Amino acid sequence: MLAIESSCDETAAAVVADGRHVRSSVVSSQVDLHARFGGVVPEIAGRAHLERLLPVVDEALASAGLSRADGPSLAAVAATSGPGLIGSLLVGVSAAKALALAWNVPYVAVNHLEGHLFASLLEAPDLEHPAIVLLVSGGHTLLVRLDAPGRYALLGGTVDDAAGEAFDKVARYLGLGYPGGPAIEAAARQGDPTAVAFPRPMLDEGFSCSFSGLKTAVVTTVRARPELSTEDVAASFQAAVIDVLVHKALAAARAVGARSICLAGGVGANGPLRARLEEAAAAAGLSSYLPSRAMCTDNAAMIAACAFARLERSGASPLDSGAEPSLAFPAA
Amino acid sequence: MNDTLQLESSVEVGRLVLLSPSAASTRALGALVGRLLEPGEVVLLSGGLGAGKTTFTKGLVAALGSSEEVTSPTFTLLRTYASTPVVAHVDCWRLEDLNEVVDLALEEVLDEGGIVVVEWGEAAAPLLGAEALVVTISDPGELCGSARRVELCDPSGRFRERLAALAPRLARVGR
Q: Which of A116, A195, B50, B149 would be a feasible disulfide site paired with B140, CB 3.0-4.6 Å?
């Protein structure tokens, strides 16, 4: 199975055998291009994906000991069809469909969010179910109950800003640069997380969360108390986000009787979040799976694993299916 | 401080200034504005981080009959809500260039009778601003707490009668 992921920052391709064994996983990050804009600029994203896609695909094939001549022997070619930026998605979807057509193999469209749930299958096949997956990225903040690979239910999500978006916006506001997650984390290391008691929004209100008010609180606080150091504000903001995420994940685990907690998505690379979640899960007698950084952030291996399950369950996707920027979390 | 919207200035031609004491009243103002829009019209929202642009849009979309959760469109740039008429909620925070706004094909939404609401709308003004209702929300910190000053500006005169009809329905400061 060859899979392509191009929903946002990363152009990625991977070859995965039997939905479990990663033969190659190549990621060509566009982060340098975006850094000076303080966010993803879609036109740049689309064009850069176009330039990088074929080299990344060739590299993924070569690392797996294959070449384009082996295309017709693949089980399928998969691509992320949404959610994401339309121009970026179209590059991956069009390439995957063209390759599938040329090689006469099935094409499989994959929901990016569902793809993240398959990261655990690749790195932690012994994960105990049911599990709670905390999926936190620039565009998404979701709590999902995972009953088995491919079987899950959405418990809640953000009612306004995603956690990663709050990191990006606060980082730009504080002049710390992009991407916001690593920038805040680095500044926070030099700061005091108790310097400002930022609100912990919607802490005990079910599994939905809200980060817009917290972002506003940062702006209001910085204006009212200009003497505060950027590092202290960053550390206090990060502590508030982590408190909310860990609290929600643990509450969800208790509510559904989960046996483990998984982290997924780009914000899952945040060191203090990983440490706090692992500690809290252990204290609650739950096992935790913290994916490697490469598996937290967008990659094509998880898309291939998801595509494999999808192909077995519901067959190939039609070649006239398109890209869907606002694709919702799938009901399954 | 209550949740009642207050008219701050006397009604001038093409301009209403309101005091919105809370997030709830900002949302209510979004609903009032939503109800006075016609198919094919544009609202440009401006105001800094945390001003309440998404809160305003939540009220606007709900007033047009959609119960969908309105979340920030920053990541996907564009979210469409199945209200009547359809609302395309756009965010230009990450856009630098007018051509990127062109790529979002908002003209098509308007041609099909949809309403376009643009956050960080300054970037889209050259393209969509000619007959837009421009809503400027003051930044957090300029007033105390969650209170905001909101200016409804109608540079083209398209909304003149509708804004004039709205004014008497609002409480006045200092009465």
A: B50
Residue A33 has pLDDT above 70, yes or no: no
Distance CA B78, CA B108 (A): 13
Q: Give me the amino acid identity at A179.
A: P
Q: What are the backbone dihedrals phi and psi of residue A115, each rounded to the nearest 5 degrees, phi first? A: -55, -45
Classified as helix, coil or strand, B17 is strand
Distance (Å, whole) CA B49 – CA A311? 43
Cβ neighbours of B103 in A, within 8 Å: 42-43, 87
pLDDT of A89 higher than 50:
yes
Do A137 and A111 share a structural domain?
Answer: no
For residue A100, give its domain range: 2-115+296-314
If you ran DSSP here, which 8-state letter would residue B124 be given? G
Judge whether A320 lies within some domain.
Answer: no
Cβ proximity of A8 and A27 under 8 Å: no
Q: A with B: how many residue pairs have Cβ under 8 Å apart?
A: 82
No. of H helices and E strands in chain B? 6, 9
Residue B127 contacts by C-beta under 8 Å, 6 or more apart in sequence?
A: B98, B101, B102, B106
Q: Which of A111, A209, A219, A267 to mutate to test the interface with B (most CBs of B within 10 A)?
A: A219
Assess whether pLDDT exceeds 60 at residue A83: yes
Between helix A230-256 and helix A271-283 the angle, nearest 10°, is 30
Q: A64: phi > 0 → left, psi -120 to 50 → alpha, else beta; which? A: alpha
Half-sphere exposure for A40 (CA within 13 Å, toward CB): 28
Predicted TM-score of the model (pTM): 0.83
Per the listing, tokens 């004039």 go with B164
Q: From CA B47, how far away is CA B30, in angstroms rounded?
A: 14
Asked whether residue A262 is domain-assigned, the answer is yes
pLDDT at residue A210 greater than cutoff 70: yes
Q: Kindly report the CATH number assigned to the domain that includes residue A220.
A: 3.30.420.40
- Rounded-to-integer distance, Cα A9 and Cα B158, Å: 41
Digit-coded pLDDT (tens) for A235-286:
999 999 999 999 999 999 999 999 999 999 999 999 999 999 999 999 999 9
Q: Among all residues of chain A, which has the CA nearest to that of B54?
A: A160
